[in-house]
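Hi U.,

Before I forget, here's the chain from the pilot set. I'm dumping it here mostly so it's searchable later in email.
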Amino acid sequence: MDDVIRYSLVAAREAWMHAGLPASSDDRRRRGCVLGIGGGGETTHDRAMRDIYKMGRERLHPMTLPNVMVSGSAGRVAIDLGLRGPNFTISSACASGSHAIAQAAQLIACGQADVMLAGGSEAPFALGAMRSWEALKVLSPSRCRPFADDRDGMTLGEGSAIMVLERAEHAARRGAKVLAILAGSAMTCDATSMVAPDVSGMADAMRKAYDSKTDRDIPDLVIAHGTGTRLNDDLELEAMRSAFGTLPRFYSPKGQVGHMLGAAGAFNSVIAALSVYHGRSPAARLPTGDPAAENSPEDTPVGSALANAFAFGGLNVSLLFRSSNEQSL
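Structure:
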């Protein structure tokens, strides 16, 4: 079993248990899973190529293909938890996990499911994947420092972040503990470059996800894509100003966990949901040199949080999470 599948199974089981959902149920056809994965079974693929081209083997392990394909994780999760509703994988580079959450929410909204597991997974620590990222010359020689003045690139991370999305009436009927409400989502495409982000595309996603979802002018917190590269962080700051007229409080977790690629947007979403649940920001930002970015104290209550994910190909996703305690919901 490839590492990306292992991560997915562990995260899915933890999310399912945390939600208090039963292991078996009569309405399994109303429960599904959408995962976002950028690269699939990288370690298995590397091993297979080594066996063929270096070792000269003519036959591979019969489970090679199911472990390599990006849909393998969602399939395994469905088997493990008995989910017989919608099940598929979205592969859109670093926006994969966020796209998966947005699509899972839409499946619930259109009546296809009552409960959906959604998120992302990635396991890129394989030689071929690492060499590919090195070739782009975006990796830091030291450590990732998102938005810091002395930032010099990103570092890779791996793992899985999965959440349970549930129809509000279904959750209320079983007395579920609600961490947050997914109040808005938006997906845009820059249509300009395969690797360079575009301010207008990122700003459009943030603005569309947030507009008319709250009586406040800006979100209380933005969980930024924040890769730690010079270009990405500067343009994301500019996009936040363009979307909201000023810089909201923001934070990127990539300095702690690295860039989890297909799981990155889902990880940001988990942080956003927990931030509004606990009502506070997760951590301090590194200094940006911009006074406007440093004017929000961390103890300011967080009732809304926007999670960003921006990917190669100009793919942008923003998801808005709001506190379930707000009366204006």
